[in-house]
Amino acid sequence: ATSLNNDKAHALYSSLNFSAASFGISLELKDYRNFLLGSGINEPPALVREHSYRVLNRTTHVLQPSNESGFQIEAFYSPNLNTTLILNYTKAKNGETITFNYQEWFAELNTSFTENTDVGLFLDYAQDPLKGQENRFSAGFTLLHKLSSENFQSIGLEFNSQAFKRDNQTMTNYVGDLTLQIKSKIVVNMLSEWSTDSFFTDSSRIWFGSTIHYKMNSKNKFALFAGERRGGPACNAGVCYEILDFKGVELRWTTRF
Length: 257
Prior knowledge:
The chain is an all-beta fold. It is built from one helix and 15 strands. The strands form two sheets. Strands 1-2-3-4-5-6-7-8-9-10-11-12-15 form a 13-stranded antiparallel beta sheet. It has a two-stranded antiparallel sheet with strand order 13-14. The longest helix is centred in the first third of the chain and has 4 residues, at 54-57.
């Protein structure tokens, strides 16, 4: 666009990257105004880090291309092949008569605790007025241990915790995930969630479900789920969608032609 006047449609995105040896840093800027085509045909860069951790992925800030400006800065440091430290800060501004300022600070450390054990740790602090979440603090860890058993290849454990304030009340979310890799074709996963979020419950609520994944070959995969799945937003590759609550038994068959 030739003008960034707020009365005209425009989209500005710029980035600057630097890396040297084991260190790198990137800076991205955005300024979008009336840049929404149809019902979301265009997907301009969101400049918000997408997380794999469940409590953070569920609360990912969704870009508002009709009116949003901001920036993202991220740095990484790898002192060796097995260790990586990532630091990220994101800020986004939305609104006309009322301004909403989203901010998020994120830190993640991944390292090999032993030759057969990988550990990941994360800390996250955010202000998200669009979701009505103040002082949102999240933390957690992942652990993957390779087993020497002939039948069992690895065991994984993940735990997430999150607390924030809404209407002067403290809400909490917890996630526990246990994964067992059996040979190369079978994966057993058990997932439990607990929440005191007033959007879901008057006091507290627990979800528990288990999934068995079976990889028949390179083109066909099956997943059998039993239990209760928590609904809510989920984001993948920059696209966010809504997952519905589910309780019961579900069989999925994924195939490639």
